[in-house]
Design brief:
Largest sheet: 7 strands, mixed
Helix content: 25-40%
Distance between the termini: 20 Å
Strand content: 15-25%
Number of domains: 2
Shape: globular
Order of helices and strands: HHHEEEHEHEHEE
Number of strands: 7
Radius of gyration: 17 Å
Structural class: alpha/beta
């Protein structure tokens, strides 16, 4: 399999490693299966053993994996024609915003935050979702994570009205992730309006 992502996303060390992960991938591109395959490749020690000068291999894995995890989501969206979308997008009219993934449809924006593990990091996504919903009342905010246990706990908090700003947490290796992709595929996305609310973005994928 060859990545469908633009080369500008793959020029760093994480991008090169990601390309090597999918080079021999020939499985079903069902989102949860693909994510499970790449996550397994990320955790294989041999992928991080080349640099003997790194004292804390765990920190190296964490740093590289976070970037590769974003590439997984970008690859899935692009592969399933869920485009256009913005990455690392800052919106002029939404304070304290820098969204991992941002999509626009005719109703409202949809943001996807990607976190390998949640811990307390989900709170930043909740803040971003809250501010977005103050400007766009029908906006949706989803978190995609590889932390199954925490995703379940946080979804219970949403049901008990303990979390606002996030509509759902998705464990990336679950059937729920496939359902999210199907939901997004049913929507029609577009570039931002002529009065562009995006003031900064690393890249727009079309």
């Amino acid at each position: 399999m060859e990545t469908s992502l633009p080369k500008q996303l793959l020029e760093n060390k994480s991008g090169k490693m990601y390309e090597s992960f999918i080079e021999n991938y020939s499985g079903n591109m069902e989102p949860s299966n693909f994510a499970a395959y790449i996550c397994q490749k990320m955790t294989e020690p041999k992928n991080y053993s080349g640099d003997k000068k790194i004292a804390d291999i765990g920190q190296k894995i964490k740093s590289v994996s976070g970037k590769i995890f974003e590439l997984i989501i970008a690859e899935i969206l692009k592969h399933h024609n869920i485009t256009p979308f913005y990455m690392q997008a800052v919106m002029r009219n939404v304070p304290n915003s820098k969204f991992d993934f941002l999509c626009f449809n005719d109703q409202a924006p949809i943001i996807l935050s990607v976190k390998i593990s949640l811990a307390e990091r989900w709170r930043q996504s909740a803040f971003e979702g809250y501010f977005l919903k103050q400007v766009y009342r029908q906006a949706k905010s989803y978190v995609i994570t590889n932390d199954e246990r925490s995703a379940t706990l946080r979804n219970n908090d949403i049901e008990n009205n303990k979390i606002s700003g996030i509509d759902h947490f998705y464990y990336v290796q679950s059937r729920e992730m496939n359902n999210l992709v199907e939901k997004l595929k049913s929507l029609k996305f577009k570039k931002a309006d002529l009065v562009n609310p995006v003031s900064e973005s690393n890249v727009i994928i079309e």
